[in-house]
Amino acid sequence: MSQTSFLSPVAPSQHAFQTSFDDTAPDQPWDRGLSIQEAWSNSAPIRDNCAPPRPITEHQPSKTRSYVSLSKLLDYIQPELSRKQYRIIKNDKGLIEAYKSAGIDRVEIGRQICEWGKNSGDEAIVDISSKVGLLLQEMGKLSEPYATALEDARGHLKIIRNIEKIVQPIRDRKMRVLGNIQKLRTKQPLQSIKLAALEQELVRVEAESLVAEAQLTNLTRQNFREAFQIELTAAIERAEKEVILAKHGFRLLELLDANTVAPGQPFVPYEHGDQAHQVLSDAEANLKEYQPDDSRGKAQALSWALPPLACTSSADFHCRPVSPAAAVRSGTEKPATNLGHRPKSTELAPSLDPIFRPLPMLARRALQLRWQSLRGQVSLPNHSGVCWTTRLYSSAASEAARTQGSGRPVDGVTTGADSAGPLATGIPLPIAAKMGLRAPPPPSGQNSSASSQASQPFQRTAQIARHLNSNSDSSSAPAATMSGYTVRKVAAQNTLEHRVYIEKDGVPVSPFHDVPLYANQEQTILNMVVEIPRWTNGKLEISKEELLNPIKQDIKKGKLRFVRNCFPHKGYLWNYGAFPQTWEDPNTVHPETKAKGDNDPLDVCEIGELVGYPGQIKQVKVLGVMALLDEEETDWKVIVIDVNDPLAPKLNDVEDVERHLPGLLRATNEWFRIYKIPDGKPENQFAFTGECKNKAYAMDVIRECAEAWERLITGKTQPGSVSTTNTTVEHSPSRVPVQSLPPLPPHEELPPAKIDASIDKWFFISGASA
């Protein structure tokens, strides 16, 4: 596909999908209103290619024969635009492999230069060639992350292609209905009952088609932008790092003596070894200190290279979604004057957050005419940024956003007439389900068991609205927990320097060693340290190695770690944390899991409805435990619930979880099984075939880990890299007086630092439930 096809403007009176086709393309079966099955049965070229070839005799001229391949078959049955996308994605794969291969070759060349220099006999060449070879090897290693970025960008293009293929059956269905109407008009009176039914069906199909096309446009633009932002950003980073290495390479070359050597004249002694070593150190430091220039933001990263584009069309549609119902009521918007600036939108309806882009003029007018036959207006749940086929999951989130606990509509969510359900619109429930419409809630005074069962899936989702309203910002967390502990936050969240210290009555304590495991004398209620709030992605954990074990974000290769969003899950499914005064001993093999401990405090998944914050001390009830086998280590996951949760009185064992929260344990198992796959790691495995053991078994595991911690804190087990410094454990040789501790940094209430937009990307894992 040529570059101009990406940049060519879309006519305001046409739909984005229609203008994407090549006008010169031959007539395709789906252009004649045929389904994919009909297109297959009527596809003569495929039958011809599948027929056995005739034998060539000496009297017959040789003919070129073609046979059916997978790629050719895809070319016949895919929509035209999807075919072009398939070719782009296929070529991208070859390009990625070429970059990886070129990087490997470059590393090998650098290594060979080092080997060659060692045998040259020239002291200067020996030193300089070894260092230039190392720089070339570093240049070669840059190809791997660049190829990984290209693979990531290719994934976004795959999403566009897959959605295009999903929308095609809706187009086929619309063409079939139109064809049936045309046939009936030639055979039956215009007022026939069957024709009227088809007209009503056409209204519903057109509504569904408009929704699908609008979301296709949304997701196409979004994923196209993200794909090439990733690719271009990676290209800039790779080029800038290569420039850094090349400049230091020139510095090394300048250390070579440029004077010629006469025959028989001894070599001038090489005296630049220290300088060459310093050049290599400088190159290493520059690479470690390299930071991409994000000061301008991604949307304006290339503003220095591109002049602002003025909008000359009054039908310029911004990247603002709008629902079909609202699109009928809304007028045209003021066009933007710069790609990097979007004016505030006009108010479309009270409390209505647009969720689709404005439809093109002709489509909007057609919808307005057809909509008159429906009783009421259609409301669609917010699928912004999520594939339109994920209706049930997105509908739940949308329903929660509508309720916000108090029943008051959330700003930016469809309400009133806009929230009419499928029954109010006259759309049959099967069609409504495909469009993502929800059934209307029962009247407030209705208390029948049927209505309560119908609304049961949404009873516990008001928490989503509370979480979304906080924008996942734990900086607004209260300074003191219910148990009297306070948190001291240092630096901004999402930074390498961020720490969360725990204090008790103003005295710093270790969440690993000083917070007691049990919260009551009967040892039925336990203390849990929250590390990661629900629905967040930052991988926060108690730092075993640092003094007083503050909570910090895990780091790998100098970068902060985040868990990926494996569809349909968003971040962590629970408040994730650890039990204090527990330790999974890496020196002990568990008799049933046949694996050693993971050298961490015992992990906890708190399934209550309230979202916690890092450093919070929750009192919880134990319900069950799963045994994850993570890289050949036993990693227990204890299932608990906050004692203050409304469901806590009803949940006493693992069977109660399945009864009152059906599907949660299955989702937990799946999440732990697949969450590392987007990072290129294999699936995790479980002991006990993934079964969640009951409360009695879980309490035994907790007691075993508490005994292991006891051996660690008393010095009976060598701590290794684990810091056992504490201020309250009297029988511990690592206890220190508070006065001898270094002063902690002051408490800071700072907004979280911005994170890369790729953290919010969905990953669709084969075999995961949707």
TrEMBL record:
**Which PROSITE patterns did the record assign?**
PPASE
Q: Which of UniProt's keywords are assigned here?
A: Coiled coil, Cytoplasm, Hydrolase, Magnesium, Metal-binding
Q: Which residues form a coiled coil?
A: 195-222
Q: Which CDD domains match?
A: pyrophosphatase
Q: Where in the cell is it found?
A: Cytoplasm
Task: Look up keyword Repeat and say if it applies.
Answer: no
List its EC numbers.
Answer: 3.6.1.1
Q: Which PANTHER family match?
A: INORGANIC PYROPHOSPHATASE
Protein's UniProt name: Inorganic pyrophosphatase
